[in-house]
Amino acid sequence: MNISTKNKFNNPFISLKHKNFRYYWIGMCISVIGTWMQNIAQPWLAYTLTNSPFLLSLIGIVQYTPMLIFSLFAGVIVDKFPKKKILILTQSASLIITLILAILVWTGKVHYWHILILSTVLGIVNTIDMPSRQSIIVELVGKEDLMNGIALNSMAFNLARIVGPSIAGLVMGYVGIAACFFINAASFGAVLISLFFIKIEPSKVVETKNKKNTKLIGEIKDGLKYIYHKPVLLYTILIMAVVGTFVPNFNVLVPVFAKEVLKQGETGFGILMSFMGLGSFIGAMFIAMLSKNGPKKVFIYVVPLIVGGFLMLTGYTSIFLVTGIFLALTGFFFIAFTSSANSTLQLNSSNEYRGRVMSVYTLVFAGSTPVGNFYAGVITQHFNARIGFAACGIIVIVLIIPLLVYRMLKTR
Fold first, then answer.
1. Which residues fall within 8 angstroms of residue 119, CB to CB, at 6 or more apart?
2. Domains of the chain and CATH, by start
3. Cα angle for residues 286, 349, 76 (degrees, 5° grid)
4. Tell me, what's the pLDDT at 91?
5. CA–CA distance, 231 with 407 (Å, rounded to integer)
6. 343, 291 in Cβ contact below 8 A?
7. CA 144, CA 15: separation in Å to the nearest integer?
8. 193 in Cβ contact with 309 (< 8 Å)
9. Which phi-psi region, left, alpha or beta, contains residue 51 (left: φ > 0; alpha: ψ -120 to 50)?
10. Of 299, 304, 296, nearest to 403 (Cα)?
11. What is the pLDDT of residue 292?
12. How far does CA 47 lie from the centroid of its chain?
């Protein structure tokens, strides 16, 4: 490897030199495998109970609506309290909620409305959990290794997306759906154990420096003004809003596409999701290797258009392997974009605003899911899964092109 190549790429695991991050990352690696097992089992269970793409999409809607409503309030909380303590509370609550669902499924007493209610409660917990998990990374690795730490988090999440669905498909087929929920409940314990080993110095706990806005609404407005007056934050958030709304609707589209178009069962569905996880993992590894030189603009402004194109292509495949390959490519570019956007937001945010900036990130990335799930669910219900994929890809391209044109005109 020549000198120029060495300067371009770095050790993709460099953030693991930080002991606190090692503990956190290992715990998350275990936990997200359980999370992905539930992500596969829950939509399959809901679709089996209802046989309705719209009711399936409603699960995603109720789970992410709390983020749509409360994310901005959560950002103020994250900026005011130690993130480690917040995560201990949210991870404990997630364990209890998942365990309740596991018991209901195991005893054969689960009904569709149980999934709706528990998904809503889990959504409330995740509204605080997600921005806390995003913004604690800088306290574990520092700004120098922040982008690498974010990429490693994505790698763990997407390695689990490869392993989790495959295991879930086999477990559902041979043991039963309930086992997936029990495994996920147990996996939250790994995060809790890792958090107890993490020691964050008091000086590294971010305090809000702006004492003028002591009221909750005032602090939310202050955070939004901060984003609005920094173009790099504003345009990244706007593009993320489009991508976060209309791309990650796979929990609605893939189960229906697998069953109705490809004529696959639980195992085939799990394998398709693993293809996407493989592509996402490779994308996260690629970004981790490039992290030395910071996020690239091309990943923010151009890659979303590529993602939209692959969504459209996926909808018009009929061969299982080809569908898997297109899902893998979609995953690669999707993670390349989200990791770069996350790093761009955190690196360009001051400490006292980082929690609020990441709460807006959570709002447009995860909080917009109800809108996207509703969009994908209604189109798939009235037409088919092919049209559902195509419609999501088309709207991403149609909405992002004007943003890019406006951005170029403003910078002239």
1. 42, 59, 62, 63
2. 11-200+215-411 (1.20.1250.20)
3. 115
4. 94
5. 9
6. yes
7. 9
8. no
9. left
10. 304
11. 64
12. 22
Cα 113 to chain centroid, rounded: 25
CB 256, CB 380: distance < 8 Å: yes
* 8 A C-beta contact, residue 250 and residue 377: no
For 124-176, what is each residue's pLDDT tens digit? 999 899 888 888 888 888 877 787 888 888 788 777 777 787 788 888 888 88
Residues 186, 108: Cα–Cα separation, whole Å: 20
DSSP assignments along 322-351, one per residue: HHHHHHHHHHHHHHHHHHHHHHHHHHTS-G
pTM score, two decimals?
A: 0.75
Confidence of residue 293 (pLDDT cuts 50, 70, 90): low
Alpha helix (H) ranges present in 198-302? 216-228, 231-246, 250-256, 266-290, 297-301
Q: Residue 189 half-sphere exposure, CB side, CA atoms within 13 Å?
A: 7
**How many CB atoms are located within 10 Å of the residue 43 CB?**
23
The letter for the amino acid at 305 is: L
Contact (Cβ atoms closer than 8 angstroms) between residue 344 and residue 230:
no
Please report the pLDDT score of residue 99 as a whole number: 95
For 324, the token pair is 């898997």
Of 338, 345, 336, which is closest to residue 231 (Cα–Cα)? 345
In residues, how long is the chain?
A: 412
Query: Is 133 exposed, middle or buried (CB count within 10 Å of its CB: 0-12, 13-18, 19+)?
Result: buried
E-strand ranges in 40-170 read: none
Tell me: pLDDT of 336 over 80. yes
| Summary mean pLDDT of the chain | 84
